[in-house]
Write a structure and sequence with these properties.
The chain is of the alpha+beta class. It has a domain at about 70-180: Immunoglobulin-like (Sandwich). It is about 15% helix and about 40% strand. The protein has two helices and twelve strands. Strands 5-6-7-10-9-8-11-12 form an eight-stranded antiparallel β-sheet, with no helix packed on it. The radius of gyration is 33 Å and the shape is globular.
Length: about 180
């Protein structure tokens, strides 16, 4: 049976759909009691605190190299070591950085022993303190160490292993730094 262009099944389907939509309507929600800021709704206090905790747990420093070298963290970023290679001079510098990556983290040792592996060769070298007298540093209380060696002249990519570094009463052994040219 058909009613002016509509079949019975089509009409029945339309009635069911309209009735279903009408029956599913719900009352309008009550007005929210949350405060509205000028620029939109304000996040609930619990969300603000949770977000703040997430940001508090993230690292607040940057592993930037103040001297243009390669920076590696020591421990859980308690301090950092920055290595700078001047290949034409055969020079390798170590700068001790604090937990935030700032220069000037003094360590209480006059020398730092490093193993340098490059081009299939392994060389053990001793870096000597270069105290910054302007800041009161001295050998055994310095933040900058240097070694010059013909073995480092025009070296290719290298793996440098800092054999032993003591920072603020904590000893870090065999810290690997990859120097890429």
């Amino acid at each position: 049976m058909s009613v002016k262009g509509w079949s019975v099944s089509g009409t029945l389907m339309a009635v069911v759909m309209v009735g279903g939509l009408w029956g599913c309507s719900s009352p309008a929600p009550e007005a929210s009691s949350a405060p509205i800021a000028e620029n939109g709704p304000v996040a609930p206090k619990a969300l603000e605190e949770a977000t703040a905790n997430v940001f508090d747990d993230t690292e607040t420093h940057a592993d930037q190299a103040p001297h243009g070298g390669t920076v590696v963290p020591l421990g859980a970023h308690d301090a950092h070591a920055e290595l700078v290679a001047v290949r034409d001079l055969g020079e390798l510098s170590l700068y001790m950085l604090d937990g935030e990556g700032q220069a000037g983290q003094r360590i209480a040792q006059p020398k730092v022993v490093v193993d340098v592996e490059t081009s299939g060769r392994l060389v053990r070298l001793e870096m000597s303190a270069v105290p910054d007298e302007g800041t009161g540093e001295r050998s055994g209380d310095a933040s900058h160490f240097v070694v010059r060696s013909e073995d480092l002249i025009r070296m290719a990519d290298a793996k440098v292993i800092l054999r032993w570094i003591g920072v603020n009463g904590v000893v870090y052994n065999d810290v690997v730094v990859d120097l890429v040219s």
